[in-house]
């Protein structure tokens, strides 16, 4: 292709027409969304990030919300999972306590998360990614890295144009927008996707990497959170450019293994490969309550409901786990985590619940809890899950009954059959569930 690596040419993100001059609008369709970059056609690592994913899905499904501020999250005791860009203008941010979000934007529409719907939509988008390359590394339900190296012969287009086509396809077929970052490494591709959101498409080339990073804050480096940033500030380090002047030995002497990461990433050195479908470590669900709960009688039905949610996800993925993990957070935000390993892997709601309940009973000491979660880890495929229990005949009967219930729910919906624990239970408005295979998004 004659235009490859020629800085004089670019293309239109809307109609994909090749441009042959420096004018500001597309020569074919008049769009201002033009892409030009000296390395535009030579970069192959992409990062895709859906724009305000949960809120965008809700707006897509309810056009009346299109121009309204929308917050996805729990009730007054919950937190913001994500907010649309209209709400963000008013100061609403992800992970913000709900009461503060409503103070900042009192006219916002608050919607409880529908994780099953978001996971379903996320998988549709991910399949579109796999249509482009087998090297897709999901980071969460709504973002992933792609390596399009060597795919030009397949698509008859360089990666940048392929990703522009992908973004247009997602908007056309799914009804959502995505932002794309392209570079020569994962670190800079992810940084690029954060620019010009929503519907962004940014490029960071190898030749410009060091200069580009020099004036950026050290918090842009992966792993530099609030605590470590405070340490760097005490040492007088605030910009990546300052790190670029420091020797590897000095950084490692001061910060250990993290010093090596600071040295390499500050110089745009990142050799990590795009690893397709990283191994799932756990599947879990949790909920935050509107009011603190101390009573086992109140907590047990919620635990049962969460156990059923985790069970559905395990069964859908044909996996099972041997370790049951209970998570509790008290009113003073102290976290308790308890776990128990089973003799055999399980994917049954009954076993997950009964194991979790035995762990929960030991924690009932008058403490009032604001959050409850249950999860399964130590995962494997389900071919050895839940063998018949020749000792506990009732357990076997409950397993058979659960299989029958699953069939009815598969035909008539999840609420078609309920257990005595969950029947007529009013679910907390702030219920937020998480499947660790597809962590929630917060961009």
From TrEMBL:
Binds 2 magnesium ions per subunit. It catalyses: DNA(n) + a 2'-deoxyribonucleoside 5'-triphosphate = DNA(n+1) + diphosphate. Keywords: Cytoplasm, DNA damage, DNA repair, DNA replication, DNA-binding, DNA-directed DNA polymerase, Magnesium, Metal-binding, Mutator protein, Nucleotidyltransferase, Transferase. GO terms for cellular component: cytosol. One of its GO terms (molecular function) is damaged DNA binding. Pfam families: IMS (PF00817), IMS_C (PF11799), IMS_HHH_1 (PF21999). The gene is dinB. Mg(2+) binds at residues 49, 142. PROSITE patterns: UMUC. Its EC number is 2.7.7.7. It comes from the Bacteria. One of its GO terms (biological process) is error-prone translesion synthesis. The lineage of its organism: Bacteria, Pseudomonadati, Pseudomonadota, Alphaproteobacteria, Hyphomicrobiales. Poorly processive, error-prone DNA polymerase involved in untargeted mutagenesis. Copies undamaged DNA at stalled replication forks, which arise in vivo from mismatched or misaligned primer ends. These misaligned primers can be extended by PolIV. Exhibits no 3'-5' exonuclease (proofreading) activity. May be involved in translesional synthesis, in conjunction with the beta clamp from PolIII. InterPro entries: DNA/RNA_pol_sf (IPR043502), DNA_pol_Y-fam_lit_finger_sf (IPR036775), DNA_pol_Y-fam_little_finger (IPR017961), DNA_polymerase-Y (IPR050116), DNApol_IV (IPR022880), IMS_HHH_1 (IPR053848), Rev_trsase/Diguanyl_cyclase (IPR043128), UmuC (IPR001126). Its cofactor is Mg(2+). It is an enzyme of class 2 (transferase). It is found in: Cytoplasm. Belongs to the DNA polymerase type-Y family. CDD domains: PolY_Pol_IV_kappa (cd03586). Monomer. The active site is at 143. The record marks 54 as: Substrate discrimination. Residues 45-225 form the UmuC domain. This is DNA polymerase IV.
